[in-house]
């Protein structure tokens, strides 16, 4: 049976994050370090004792003075125990934090004869310090990026004024300028002012996004409608260059996005495509499901393309990159940085593919907005029946249930359904009262409502019509008719 000291030693040597040291200050006794020191320091006990000269020699230089001072206070005082923390440098040249508990034994006259320590690797402190170092380095990198960005923007803000002031000075001081020459100078001034305004607008929007003063407020939007409206804003530019813009987007694709901000993204990308596409070429815009929960939008042109050596500059804050268009059109260079920020704040990604003199296609993903059907029915069997009919026919629809009008109004506080299907005869709140409550809330006024009842008369029908309900289905319902009505009303 091993003695207690051997048992303790064997136990300590199995520890992965703790080790013990014993230093003797009397003649004839050898210092001791438990073998488990290897798991913490990378050194064996023999290496530390014979080659490194003990644990104290692998303590970080910055901490050695503090440890030495504390040990000096212990040796000269009357206290026999203390806890300290310090960093060591491992054999792999990594820094680790150690929590050390120190215990002293003294002789009859108070001299220290034995110093025992229990050393525990402080992984939490190590992780915290590593995170701090990582965060600090990241902040330095961001700060350097912003310094360079400010330098670039400062230059770009001043540059257009050279043209504006130079040509306006000529117009002011020279009275006998030919009409053609005057118009040429005015066009230079106008172009420089447009570039300046675009830069300022992009800079302000980007700044507001960074500081949180411009917030993303997403809601359910029809993707084709939004893309078509954005493209229509640039119709004049496309017509002037005889560029055809094709939109191939399914009517039933809905996205969850901030309409104003996403319109800005699409306008920027279409505007760039027009700018860098030669006369007579085309631009194609598509949108389709990318992966679960996201829609991918692609804007593809037949333009100048981006040289491979310049492609890594796109979206970089500290490497603002801009090219002149096919007819000398200028850009702020900030548009794509703003695009990236807006898309990422929506939870999406943006990337591109480009071949010089062939064209470029920009891709971005945006959260998909599912169609939500709110079913309001107090009869549990009918509720399950309607749910089964809809879920089998309309796989991508989300179905939310409510047993009565009050439950339905609670749902409407947090959700914006595509359509509400309600029974007329319900306890607590009738279908008419529910429709009245729905229409009172501004955000719900446009939600289509289908009412189901076994007893419709002319007076009841008129009440519902006055509340904007255009579809009333008599019981029992026909499955196909219900699905057709849902598809007809969910746009």
What does this protein look like?
With 491 residues, this protein is α/β, with parallel strands linked by helices. The longest helix is centred in the first third of the chain and has 51 residues, at 123-173. The strands form 4 sheets. Strands 2-1-5-4-3 form a 5-stranded antiparallel beta sheet. Helix 7 crosses helix 9 and helix 12 packs parallel to helix 13. The model has no long low-confidence stretch (mean pLDDT 83). 45% of the residues lie in helices and 23% in strands.
Strand order of the largest sheet: 2-1-5-4-3
- Mind summarizing the main beta sheet? 5 strands, antiparallel
Number of helical runs? 15
- Share of residues in strands: 15-25%
Rg result: 37 Å
Number of strands: 17
How far apart the termini lie comes to: 83 Å
Shape: flat
Mean pLDDT: 83
Fraction of residues in helices?
Answer: 40-55%
Low-confidence stretches: none
| Sheet/helix structural class | alpha/beta
How are the SSEs placed, and which strands pair?
Layout: H1 4-13, E1 18-24, E2 32-33, H2 37-41, H3 45-51, H4 61-76, E3 81-89, E4 95-106, E5 112-121, H5 123-173, H6 179-211, E6 219-222, H7 223-232, H8 235-240, E7 244-249, E8 254-257, H9 259-275, E9 282-291, E10 294-301, H10 335-345, E11 350-355, E12 359-367, E13 372-376, H11 380-393, E14 398-402, H12 405-414, E15 419-423, H13 431-440, E16 449-453, H14 458-466, E17 471-474, H15 479-489
Parallel strand pairs: 7-9, 13-14, 13-15, 15-16, 16-17
Antiparallel strand pairs: 1-2, 1-5, 3-4, 4-5, 6-8, 9-10, 10-12, 11-12
């Amino acid at each position: 049976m091993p003695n207690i000291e051997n048992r303790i030693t064997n136990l300590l040597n199995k520890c992965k994050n703790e080790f013990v040291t014993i230093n003797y200050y009397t003649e004839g006794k050898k210092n001791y370090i438990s073998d488990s020191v290897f798991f913490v320091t990378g050194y064996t006990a023999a290496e530390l004792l014979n080659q490194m000269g003990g644990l104290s020699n692998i303590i970080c230089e910055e901490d050695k003075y503090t440890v030495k001072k504390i040990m000096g206070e212990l040796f000269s005082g009357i206290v026999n125990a203390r806890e300290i923390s310090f960093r060591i440098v491992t054999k792999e040249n990594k820094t680790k934090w150690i929590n050390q508990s120190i215990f002293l034994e003294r002789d009859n006259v108070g001299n220290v004869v034995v110093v025992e320590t229990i050393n525990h690797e402080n992984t939490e402190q190590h992780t915290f310090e590593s995170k701090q170092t990582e965060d600090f380095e990241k902040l330095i990198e961001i700060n350097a990026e912003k310094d360079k960005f400010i330098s670039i923007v400062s230059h770009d803000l001043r540059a257009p004024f050279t043209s504006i002031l130079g040509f306006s000075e000529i117009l002011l001081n020279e009275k006998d300028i030919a009409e053609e020459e005057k118009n040429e100078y005015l066009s230079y001034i106008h172009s420089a002012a447009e570039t300046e305004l675009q830069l300022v607008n992009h800079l302000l929007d980007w700044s507001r996004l960074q500081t949180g003063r411009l917030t993303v407020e997403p809601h359910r939007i029809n993707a084709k409608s939004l893309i078509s409206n954005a493209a229509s804003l640039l119709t004049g530019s496309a017509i002037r260059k005889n560029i055809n813009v094709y939109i191939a987007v399914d009517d039933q694709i809905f996205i969850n996005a901030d309409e104003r901000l996403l319109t800005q993204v699409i306008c920027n990308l279409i505007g760039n495509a027009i700018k860098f596409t030669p006369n007579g070429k085309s631009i194609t815009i598509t949108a389709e499901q990318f992966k679960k929960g996201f829609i991918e939008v692609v804007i593809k042109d037949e333009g100048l393309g981006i040289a491979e050596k310049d492609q890594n500059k796109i979206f970089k804050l500290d490497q603002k990159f801009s090219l002149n268009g096919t007819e000398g059109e200028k850009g702020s260079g900030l548009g794509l940085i703003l695009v990236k920020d807006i898309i990422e704040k929506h939870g999406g990604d943006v990337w591109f593919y480009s071949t010089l003199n062939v064209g470029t296609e920009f891709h971005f993903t945006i959260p998909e907005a599912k169609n939500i059907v709110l079913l309001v029915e107090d009869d549990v069997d009918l509720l399950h029946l309607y749910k089964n009919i809809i879920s089998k026919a309309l796989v991508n629809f989300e179905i939310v249930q409510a047993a009565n009008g009050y439950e339905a109004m609670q749902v409407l506080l947090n959700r914006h359904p595509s359509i509400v299907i309600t029974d007329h005869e319900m306890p607590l709140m009738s279908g008419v009262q529910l429709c009245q409550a729905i229409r009172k809330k501004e955000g719900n006024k446009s939600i289509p409502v289908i009412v189901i009842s076994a007893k419709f008369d002319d007076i009841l029908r008129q009440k519902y019509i006055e509340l904007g309900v255009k579809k009333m289905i008599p019981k029992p319902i026909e499955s196909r008719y219900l699905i057709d009505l849902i598809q007809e009303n969910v746009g």
